[in-house]
Amino acid sequence: MSASSSSSSSTLAREQAIFDELDLPLKAGSASEVPGIFDGDWRRGEADHTLKSYDPSTGRLMATVQGASAAQVSSALGAAQAAFRVFRKLPAPARGEVLKDIADAFTLQKDALGALVSLEMGKILTEGRGEVQEVIDLAAVAVGLSRTMAGSYLPSERAGHVLMEKPNPLGIVGVVTAFNFPVAVHGWNFCMSFICGNATVWKPAPSTPLTAIATTKLIASVLKKHNLPTALATLVAGDVETSKALCEDERVPLVSFTGSETIGRIVAQTVAKRLGKCILELGGNNAVTVLSDANLDLAIPGVVFAAVGTSGQRCTSSRRVYVHRDIADRFLQRLVGAYEQIASKGLIGSAVHDPKALAGPLHSPTAVAKHKETLAAIKSRGGRILFGESTAVQDLPSHLTGGNWVQPAIVLHSNSSDEAFAEEVFCPILNVYIISSLDEAIELNNDVRQGLSSALFTNDHVSIGKWLSAEGSDTGIVNVNAGTSGAEVGAGFGGNKATGWGRECGGTAWHAYCSWSTSVVNYSRELPLAQGVKFHL
């Protein structure tokens, strides 16, 4: 057997082990069809479109899923609504006990589910497992909330009266997720939705249906053990038709959407037409500022992870760097050196099979084409490519040559208004501009539509104070001496401006998943009116 055949056989064996562990009815290498609708029972889609799940490392088709039609979405919503009417009666602490068991199930399957994320999305194995860990961590936050979800008890201006604000379950939460975090983003929403007493209907990215199916199977198995309706974790795999049906339905008071700014605007307008509400997590276009006193032992790895990690396909990936001229030469020398090390040591590799890999493939051939097109356009406008002009990854094993591989790139610009700084591209291209002051960096940092994450590297307390102040960065995540990527779940996660203003994870993000009621309780024998109004019969 040739080395290529041996590697291919090993790949299929590993793939089959993942499928078997996660109860996916697939034979590796067969590209067979699996049902992608779950409303308490698994069903095959009836829409005209077919979803295809590829391994981005090899370009090989792994499975197909028939999309959910609009009628099937409506039927699934009916099942979710019926499940909600049962579930809303369960006290929040009891919901917390169920969520504990769901978290335990994720813990038991962390390696297998993380490997499936790597296999289907393309990120390296440690990042795939990290996604699953995010769900486990947020479940712990949500379980804590199950006994602390507080409203307000307020004094009234009327004698013998009290005011109360109380959170109640909302109903159905629609969750539309992107390919880049196929487990974590649904997990953020599901944990908060569940602990607040809601049913969730999930429309995953068209290119990552297997991860969604495996995740839904895992959650449904726990719900069944607790004798709860499994349609609390409804799944409708599909494309635009499926998303449209979900967003237009008045039975869905809240839609949480993660994806591009362009599609996010359509989702927001669609939901707003029926006066529903949205949580939007859209583009990032995140920037790092490196001042002259920065500790480069922090700044270099912080920038490299945020720019190269997940092959630049995180919403928090660094796209822009503003480095002070006094330190620019040293910074760029070390930055290019780090990229050269990644390339020369073969640290771009198979997400599932290469434990030393720091970056995997891009998710799709379309992304590869966009990466090459963007670099060529930047060069034509005068951008200086410091690394990655040759996009090809060297010395890949023969069984990986069909994958979506590119080299990460660094580009030095002389024009801060170049369109590369304004338009986010979901590829590992890092655009660098040399600045003269913190004020200049803040102006450039804020001078884009998006506002997700930003980072400042400095040891100067005055600079830190200004960066964090009302005169500083205007993003939703504002870091100091830490990169733009790698947020923790305990605080709220989300961005400002065209990123959508949405908040997920910790903090007060859970408020959005509730229906809030304000109550006046009169325990007196009088009926005074507020504001001193007199109305005598």
UniProtKB/TrEMBL annotation:
> Which Gene3D superfamilies does the record cross-reference, listed alphabetically?
Aldehyde Dehydrogenase, Chain A, domain 1, Aldehyde Dehydrogenase, Chain A, domain 2
Active site residues according to the UniProt entry: E281
> What keywords would UniProt list here?
NAD, Oxidoreductase
- Top-level taxon of origin: Eukaryota
Give one GO molecular function term: aldehyde dehydrogenase (NAD+) activity
Q: Which residues form a coiled coil?
A: none
Domain (Aldehyde dehydrogenase): residue spans on this chain: 42-517
What EC number(s) does this enzyme carry? 1.2.1.3
Q: Which PANTHER family match?
A: ALPHA-AMINOADIPIC SEMIALDEHYDE DEHYDROGENASE
Quaternary structure and interacting proteins, as annotated: Homotetramer.
Q: What is this protein called?
A: aldehyde dehydrogenase (NAD(+))
**The species this protein was found in:** Pseudomicrostroma glucosiphilum
* Lineage summary: Eukaryota, Fungi, Dikarya, Basidiomycota, Ustilaginomycotina
